[in-house]
Amino acid sequence: DEVLRLSGVGKTYNPGTPLAQNVLQDIDLRLARGELCALIGPSGSGKSTLLNLIGLLDSPSAGELYLQGRPTRALDDAARTRLRNRAIGFVFQFHHLIPAFSVLDNVLMPLMIRHGKPDAEDRARALELLAAVGLADFAAKKANQISGGQQQRVAIARALVTRPALLLADEPTGNLDTRTAESVFALFRRFNREFGCAVLVVTHDPRLAAQCARTVELVDGRIVRDAANTAAK
Ligand code: ADP
Ligand code: ADP
C-alpha cells in the first residue's frame, strides 16, 4: 500500500552553470496509504523543492520517484500531467482560487480540467465536499466574497474532489490566524482518516506538526530526522 517512494533523490538547480546549487541530496522516503506526515525544517532547507518534485511539478536531478509504484522520471510531460491530475491534490499557502468564479465552480475546476463539463455526479461530489468543510451554504458565492479561512477550506475541497491518493500541502495555514489554522488543520486530519489518502504537509508550526503521526525534518537538503509521533491523536 505504498503511495510514494523516493530513492536517492537529489535536486540541483542551474546545473552546469556558475549558479549551480545542490538543494536536495540522497532523499529516501516512503509514504504509505493513510499516513499523515509533517515536513519541517528551516527556511531554505528544500521543503518546497521536495514538494514540487513529489507533485511532479519538477523533476529530480538524481534518483527515482515512484508514485503508486510507478517510476516517474522517464515520463514525458503529458504522462506526468495525467498522473499528477489523477493521483495528487495540492493545497498551497495562497489558495489560488479564481476570484470571479463561484465557490462551487472553483471546487469543480480539477474535474473540468480532467474531463470537461461537469456532470451531475461531479456536482454532487463537490457539494458533498463543500458540506464537509462547512461551506454548503457558500457554493454560489464568488470566491472573493468569502474570508481567507473559508477560501482555504474551498482550496481543500478542490484538492480532494479528484479523490487523490496523495494530498500535498505547502504551508496551508501559514497565512491564517491561530484559531483558523487549527480548524483548517483539523480538516486535513479528518480527510486523512476518512478517505485514507496520504497527506504530506509542510508547516512551520510545531503544534500542528505534533498532530501528525510522523515528522520528517530537512536541514540543508538532507533528511536529518524521520520519526513517528506516538503522542499524535
Ligand atoms: P524551503 O521551502 O525549505 O524554504 P526551498 O525549496 O524553497 O526551501 O529552497 C531551497 C533552496 O533552493 C534555497 O536556497 C532556494 O533559494 C533555492 N531555490 C528554490 N527554488 C529555486 C529555483 N527555482 N531556482 C534556483 N534556486 C531555487
Ligand atoms: P469505500 O468505503 O468504498 O472505501 P471511500 O472511503 O472511498 O469509500 O469513499 C467514501 C466517500 O468519500 C465517498 O463519498 C467518496 O466520494 C469520498 N471520497 C473517497 N476518497 C476521497 C478522496 N480522496 N477525496 C475526496 N473524497 C473522497
Describe this structure in words.
This protein is an alpha/beta fold. It is built from 7 helices and 10 strands. The strands form 2 sheets. A 6-stranded mixed sheet has the order 6-7-8-3-9-10, with helices on both faces. It has a 4-stranded antiparallel sheet with strand order 2-1-4-5, covered by helices on one side. A hairpin with a 7-residue loop joins strand 1 and strand 2. The protein is globular. The mean pLDDT is 93. Bound molecules: adenosine-5'-diphosphate (2 copies). One adenosine-5'-diphosphate binds next to strand 2 and helix 1.
Ligand identities: adenosine-5'-diphosphate
Average residue pLDDT: 93
Q: Total helix count?
A: 7
Form type:
globular
Span between N and C termini?
Answer: 22 Å
The SSE order reads: EEEHEEHEHHHEHEHEE
Low-pLDDT stretches: none
Family: Belongs to the ABC transporter superfamily. Macrolide exporter (TC 3.A.1.122) family.
Main location: membrane
Organism: Geopseudomonas guangdongensis
Keywords: ATP-binding, Cell membrane, Lipoprotein, Membrane, Nucleotide-binding, Transmembrane, Transport
